[in-house]
Specification:
Length: 233
């Protein structure tokens, strides 16, 4: 990525309140920099399915989703094959009939989907939309150049997202462990048993009731911790 592009990305990250804002800013800049582009979106394959990470201001609702549902369309093909897809005039396009009809109904006439190399993901594309036939003819080189730079920004965003998810998973695991330990302690005190037997009993009840062990333990701890629980004893 060029130093100018990196500075722009750093500025966007600094003023961004989240990854959604950052990626939305990226698509908005794509529209500004690519001649003929009236809207832009980012497609990435996550957990085995394609989804749109962000769309620029003015992006027609459902335009990408329609492709994912049908498994057919320029951004789907670009992400899955790694080959650029260009439809200068959807009115004359025959490759994606159901998508073409829908896109035309939203006012989109021209589509360019450029593959993006994203670390750790099996397919991604930057999708440019124009409202005039041939609108992106002269902007294809600029679209490719922007997509190449955007790959770095998308990598950064996804890396941050994965780290956040990992941290959230760790917090969840720690909270689960904590509430299970509390429940084990309650049974040990009530039944005069050791920790191994207490945990086995909790697991058995969890299986019998078809309730997650963490949820069962949370219920037990909540009952014991209730303000009136001691008065009832």
């Amino acid at each position: 990525m060029s130093s100018e592009a990196s500075d722009t990305l750093d500025q966007a990250m600094a003023r961004s309140s989240g990854l959604d804002t950052l990626l939305r800013d990226l698509t908005d800049r794509a529209v500004q920099e690519v001649p003929g582009a009236d809207a832009c979106s980012i497609t990435v394959r996550r957990a085995g399915r394609l989804l749109t990470l962000a769309g620029s201001d003015g992006m027609p609702s459902g335009l990408d989703l329609r492709q994912y549902e049908k498994g057919s369309g320029p951004c789907v093909d670009a992400a899955e094959t790694g080959e650029e897809q260009y439809a200068p005039d959807l009115a004359d396009e025959s490759r994606w009939p159901s998508y073409t009809q829908y896109a035309l109904s939203t006012g989109v006439r021209c589509v360019l989907a450029v593959p993006v190399a994203v670390e750790g993901e099996s397919g991604a594309a930057l999708n440019y939309y124009g409202v005039r036939a041939g609108a992106l003819d002269t902007g294809r080189e600029a679209a490719r150049a922007f997509a190449a730079r955007a790959g770095d920004a998308i990598d950064v965003a996804l890396r941050i997202e994965r780290r956040r998810q990992s941290a959230a998973d760790v917090r969840t695991a720690l909270l689960s462990r904590s509430v299970i330990d509390q429940a084990v302690g309650i049974l040990m005190a009530r039944e005069r048993i050791d920790a191994r037997i207490a945990l086995e009993r909790l697991r058995r009840v969890s299986q019998d009731r078809n309730v997650k062990l963490r949820d069962l333990c949370s219920q037990l701890v909540a009952r014991v911790s209730a303000p009136d629980s001691h008065r009832r004893k």
